[in-house]
Write a structure and sequence with these properties.
Helices cover 40% and strands 12% of the residues. It has 306 residues and is of the alpha/beta class. The strands form two sheets. A six-stranded parallel sheet has the order 3-5-6-7-8-9. Strands 1-2-4 form a three-stranded mixed sheet, with no helix packed on it. Strand 5, helix 7 and strand 6 form a beta-alpha-beta unit. Helix 4 runs parallel beside helix 6 and helix 6 runs parallel beside helix 7.
């Protein structure tokens, strides 16, 4: 396989959120979150991340999108869900693009978003009927993100591993989004993969992203599958705790991933987002990830280009 980023083996990225802290500035009077976005972007670049995000600082993964879609009030579906009249995340993503060459766009998956909402309308008899309309709304956002110049689009579907979601319907919804972009699409799923592994590897995306620190068995589950030409987003830093793993621990996880799946296939990241962690801890974890990646790159005989 060719490296995901030309000339870069084992690129690093983030799953999404960063715990940026608001600051009072003249600019913040017009946009209270702008400084938080700047902090998040600066921290990722300073840590050495190859593919950054905008930091997802404006809200949780449900509210960020639900609050902007017609047909939804709060977290209640009150009518037919439609695409937003204005883009939701492109402003912050565009800013990140002015600061860094490689940026990923982020959207919450249709299945996860639908299960985070309450049905308070006769327009939908079930969440299964709601999901295609949410997918259509998110496809519009994805297309706009593609026009900003993202390197990758990430769809977050933590609901997939719980057994609650209809994975066949979820796959079709993801396909609605994938069809609207020309960049590679990454599917992030939290939790254990063993019981959904067959459906997971068949998802219509180019990158499969998973938790490999708190669920190390996920690595073996994937390595036993025919992955064809898919890349793997390998979570090798624990985002569920403020404890900072020692460098050798992260290195050993990356080495295990290389042994199982090959260096050219891997994109290295934390297990999940860092929203709930202190800012200094999140930065330290990203820095440690990048240092560990550099060590393993050197072992593979490749150059360390960021």
């Amino acid at each position: 396989m060719k490296p995901f980023i030309p000339g870069q083996i084992l690129p690093t990225t983030v799953v999404g959120s960063f715990p940026a802290e608001p600051r009072r500035t003249l600019r913040s009077l017009l946009d209270p979150f702008h400084e938080a976005v700047c902090q998040a972007v600066d921290a990722q670049i300073s840590a050495g991340i190859t593919i950054i995000s905008d930091g997802q600082v404006r809200g949780d993964m449900i509210g960020t999108f639900a609050s902007r879609l017609p047909g939804i009030s709060g977290k209640d579906v009150i009518g037919k869900v439609m695409p937003s009249g204005q883009t939701i995340t492109t402003k912050d993503t565009r800013y990140a693009r002015t600061r860094h060459q490689y940026v990923k766009g982020l959207v919450t998956g249709p299945s996860t978003l639908s299960h985070g909402l309450h049905l308070s309308t006769a327009n939908y008899r079930s969440r299964d009927e709601l999901i295609p309309d949410i997918a259509e709304a998110l496809a519009t956002e994805a297309r706009a993100l593609g026009e900003v110049g993202i390197t990758m689009l990430q769809i977050d579907e933590p609901i997939f591993s719980t057994g609650v979601a209809d994975l066949d319907l979820g796959r079709k919804a993801i396909e609605q989004i994938v069809q609207q972009v020309s960049v590679p699409v990454c599917l992030h799923v939290c939790g254990p993969l063993s019981r959904i592994i067959d459906e997971y590897v068949r998802m219509p995306v180019q990158v499969l992203d998973f938790e490999g620190s708190v669920d190390p068995e996920n690595l073996s589950s994937l390595s036993s599958q025919d992955l064809k030409d898919k890349y793997i987003g390998y979570g090798c830093v624990d985002s569920s705790t403020a404890k900072l793993e020692d460098l050798e621990t992260v290195i050993s996880r990356i080495r295990a991933g290389v042994e199982e799946l090959g260096a050219e296939r891997l994109i290295l990241d934390p297990d999940c987002g860092f929203r709930m962690l202190p800012q200094d801890v999140a930065y330290a974890k990203l820095s440690r990830l990048c240092k560990a990646a550099a060590v393993v790159r050197a072992e593979t005989g490749t150059n360390d280009h960021q």
